[in-house]
Amino acid sequence: MSENRLPDYIDHMQQAASDACSFVAGLSKSEFMADKRTQQAVVMSLIIIGEAATKVMGEYAEFANQHAEVPWRSMRGMRNRIAHGYFDINLDVVWDTVQKALPDLLKQLPALQSEQAMQDEAIPEAQPGRTYIGKIVSATTPDRVLQDTGRGKLVAHHVGKLDCIPAVGASVEITYNGDGDGKVLSLNQSKDIGPSR
């Protein structure tokens, strides 16, 4: 039986998209157009994203079809245009991709990672007497949310045990008492953590 590489491909996409966005952070479009090093770094990131998307479409077609909201074909198409027409790269399109498409992709990927992790292995449940810090990445069912506690480690929280329901995308600290009841504290006070219970 072959190894499941789907999580790796999604992780490669996440890392390359994050890298590309960080490369242009704080730059204006004119600064980007004048900075060949940044252009090449971003273009390489787009190639990595497109290559990973191509692998997902080829090796995990059913998964790609189930997630048609992800622009798999567009990512593959951009990779092909870059790889086969390097001297004709439209930097306006590259800039627009990093400014618009990649932030959208970065919002979609955590849910894909969570879904894949759930299929690959059982996600551990939060334990009494422990504290968990990280971003809420998905609400898998109406009664459960998943939190990324770092390095791709997920933990499941039953919302009935929490004092409020954290919103997907919120960075929170959840501390459980000995009875297993959790208190949610927002780590970014500007964001709503969700409705109180």
Key phrases:
elongated, 16% strand, 197 residues, alpha+beta, 50% helix
Number of strand segments: 5
Radius of gyration: 19 Å
* General shape: elongated
What percent of the residues sit in helical stretches (DSSP H or I)? 40-55%
Largest sheet: 5 strands, antiparallel
- Which strand-content bin applies to the residues? 15-25%
Residue-averaged pLDDT, rounded?
87
Strand order of the largest sheet: 3-2-1-4-5
Distance between the termini: 46 Å
Number of helices: 6
* Weakly predicted, low-confidence segments: none
Secondary structure class reads alpha+beta
H/E element string?
Answer: HHHHHHEEEEE
In short:
The protein is of the alpha+beta class and 197 residues long. The chain is 50% helix and 16% strand.
Structural commentary:
The chain has a five-stranded antiparallel β-sheet with strand order 3-2-1-4-5. The protein has 197 residues and is α+β, with helices and mostly antiparallel strands. The protein is elongated. The protein is built from six helices and five strands. The model has no long low-confidence stretch (mean pLDDT 87). 50% of the residues lie in helices and 16% in strands. The chain has helices at residues 6-24, 29-34, 36-59, 61-66, 72-84, 91-120, and strands at 131-141, 144-148, 154-158, 171-176, 182-186. Strand 2 and strand 3 form a beta hairpin.
